[in-house]
Each structure stands twice: as C-alpha cells, then as structure tokens.
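Students often ask why we bother encoding 3D structure as a string. The short answer is that it lets us treat folding as translation between two languages. Here is a chain of 281 residues written in the first language.
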Amino acid sequence: MSTDKLCGDPPFLAVLTEPDACVSVDRIDETVNAIERATIDGGVTLVVVRINNDVDGTSENKWNLLKRLSELKQQRLAEGNRDFLLVVNNDVELVLRAISNNIHVDGVHVKEYNAHLIPNIRQKLQDAFKDTTASSSNEIKHQPQDIIIGTSCHSKQSALDSYNLTPRGPDYLFVGTCYLTQSHPEKTSLDQLEGPTLPGSIREILYQSFNNNDDRSGNGDSDLSGVAKKPPVIFAIGGIDERNCNEPVKYGADGVATIRTVMQADDPRGVVKLMNTAMLN
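And here it is in the second language, the structure alphabet:
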C-alpha cells in the first residue's frame, strides 16, 4: 500500500480501534471481527490501532492485534481494491518492530504535541525499511516513500505548523473535536467544541498556503526528495456517526474518522455503507 490510497477520490473513512481493544484475547477477537466486517466492501481507507497503554499486558496483546490486522490487510489486498492503510497510534517502536519482522504496516499516527518530530520519525522509518529490504531475501512490497504519518490538530495554527515542517509534514490530519464524544469527556457543551466547520476551514487555509508557495517558487509541489508536498488529507473527528458524517464533508473535509460508530455496531459493514453514502450525498 502506498500513499496513493490517500490520493484517490474523497470522501475517505478512517476507523480507530477502541481504547480497550487489547485488554484481553476476547477483545482482540472482537476488534478484528469488527474491522473484518467493516472492510468487506473496501469502504474504509484507514485503520488506526489506538489503544490504552496503561493496562498490564497490553504490549504483547497490541503486537498480536497488529499482526492480525496486517494479515487482514493483506487478505483485502489479495481480494482486489479492498485494502486499507494500517497505522499505529503513538508507538514508533512497535512500527519499527513490525518493519523488522516484515509485518505489513503503513506507518504511525503522532500525537499533536509531538508533531514537530514528524520529519525525524519519517526518516527513522524510511531507514528501517531500507535496512530490512537490503537484508531480507523475501520480496518487500513496502517502499520507504510509502510511509504514512498522520497527526491531530485542534486549531488552524497547529495545522499550519505541521504542514510547514520540512522536508515534509503529515500525510493526513485528524481535525476536531467536531461533536460531543466519549473520547473527550472534558468537553461537555457545544461551546467547548471546535465544531464541524474547522476541518474544512483548515483544508482551505492549507491549500491557500500551498498555492501561494507554488506561485512564489514555482516548486511548491515537491519537497527536497521530490515527493509531492501537497496539503495533508483532512479527516474530521469527534462524535462522528452515520447521521452527522455528511456535515463536516459538506463544509470541506476530505472525510471523517470514527471509533464506536463502527466498532460497536451490530453491523459494521452496514454502518460503513451508510456513512460512505451519506458523505457522497
């Protein structure tokens, strides 16, 4: 899987695992089952392994979950255009472990307060891919330039800061909080939210910056390595469900990200279909 997955036609849908996805073998099974059903028709662009690391025994369970989702990713790839990007939240070391073991993982999601480290993290992962390719007799489908790195932002300035990183910032941004959500229990009223218009506003500002740089330099389309440095894909996040997912897209977001709407659904496949249809409309 390459960054081309994020260069297709929006809207895009990202699904994040629940924080307790690795507390037990049963929860791992439930998580994989939900993702398996959600991705049957190819309607999920990005899957993020995001779990609570404060639970005893989580580390090895997280590794096992990642391996199983990687196997599912490869299965979807073999079935045709149904594969998804697979990234790990806030755990570069786990991604490096996956790379060294030829486990197919696309990258990492970096916390907003660590976004300034994205260029260094990207270089570290690229070097690991190169080392693995050079030392392995197996065919490696990954290429270093295909690494996906995302981060989150809650303001226009934060988005600009990450986009302006050199030689390259994030490939995607989670922008929120759009609606009331269990993920941010500290936000209890609408006036505490960033709201559903912020993702589209950020996308507009980043493309204005991109176009202005392009006009001034004639080379705003590439970073130092020749990889396109267009603005990242913008996912709206926070309280997103099948009833409201069209709203951030209407305001300009490239897509949406959700957790419980899909992961706790009786029919994850059906919910994914509903969300994709709603965003298109």
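Translate back mentally: The longest helix spans residues 58-79. Keep this in mind for the problem set.
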